[in-house]
Each structure stands twice: as C-alpha cells, then as structure tokens.
C-alpha cells in the first residue's frame, strides 16, 4: 500500500478557501428593531449608499434596488434623484427624498475596516529518504518528518451599517451591522449584501 505525502501548504490553502467562501456571505452581527413602530410594509424605498466612490455607490444602489423590486417593492436608486457625489446639504437631501416619492429610506454606510491575521501552525510532512526509506518505514522503520514554517494570512473585515427610516415620521425603525470579508467585486458583493439585509427586513415585516 502506498503512503500519501501531504504538502505542508494544504492547511493554509484550506483556510484561504474558507476565507474566500466568506467573501460572498455577509453576516449580520448586530440588529435593532423599533418595538414601538407599528408601521412597515413600505411600498416605495429610496436606496442611499454613503461613500466617496461614486461608481461603487451607483453599483450598490442599483443592486440593492433590484433586490427590492424582486420582492415586489418599488425602489429608487438615490443617484437618480441625487447625482452629487460626496456629502450634500440637508435641503438638497430632503428635496431628493421628495422627488423619489418614497415612504422609506435605506441608508447604508461603512463603519470601519479591521485587518485580521490568521497564523496557520507548521504542518509536519511525512516523507521518506528515497524508496528504501519508504520500504523500511513500511516495516516499522523511522518516519522522516520535515516541518514547514507557519503560514501568515492577512485579510480585511468590513463592517457595514444599514438603517431603515420612515419618511413620514422621520424615524429610524430598524438597523443592522453586518460583517463582510474582503469585498473585491462591488456588483456581486452588493447583491449578496442586499439579499442578507432584505431577508432580515422581510422577517420583521418591514417590507
């Protein structure tokens, strides 16, 4: 029976795959719902992303709005009524909300970015000094092991907050903080994020 030699990089490779899988799976880590608010079931929502990157903002608002429409809720990407990039004054923002004819606003912003480090311990690698060594080990001879140095993997976790506001009462009725791993594809990341947020809102009958 042959012995399988396992490369030392396998544990690090497996961890990297696991981290990559997390990239497309945002996770809500904090959530708040206003118990006193009896409204909900909003019909027309203005989607507003707060970022200095105008391209990312438009992609996010489009994808989130598409997610709302797929659930039967009218949605307006904020850039269509508020094309200015960067911060705007209150009158202009209020005018944009009126222009959208929205009864609710979803406001999303990045709270912080945290760099994480994972250290994968060195993995022993079974190896033999040639065929004779393997033959000897098969009879209970010594097993030669070569240790590899630990592997260090660094990545970023991004924490994003979404707030749902009732336009009529100017009242925040729901919010959530989510954890995202290393966003790299704005369109796919936005679609995945919106799905998680909209599932949470639907569960609370806010949509």
Textual characterization of the structure:
It is a single chain. This protein is an alpha/beta fold. The protein has one domain: 3-Layer(aba) Sandwich (Rossmann fold), CATH 3.40.50. The chain has 5 helices and 8 strands, in the order αββαβαββαβββα. The strands form 2 sheets. A 6-stranded mixed beta sheet has the order 1-8-7-4-2-3, with helices on one face. It is elongated and about 80 Å long. The N and C termini lie far apart (about 60 Å). The model is unreliable at about 1-25 (pLDDT under 50).
What is the CATH architecture assignment?
3-Layer(aba) Sandwich
In sequence order, what are the helices and strands, one letter per element? HEEHEHEEHEEEH
Shape: elongated
Tell me the count of domains.
1
Query: pLDDT average, as an integer?
Result: 83
**Number of DSSP-assigned strands:** 8
CATH overall fold name: Rossmann fold
Give the N-terminus to C-terminus distance in angstroms: 61 Å
Number of distinct helices: 5
Explain the layout of strands and helices:
Elements: H1 10-23, E1 27-33, E2 44-50, H2 54-70, E3 74-77, H3 90-100, E4 104-120, E5 124-127, H4 130-138, E6 144-147, E7 151-166, E8 171-181, H5 186-203
Parallel strand pairs: 2-3, 2-4
Antiparallel strand pairs: 1-8, 4-7, 5-6, 7-8
Helix pairs in contact: 2-5
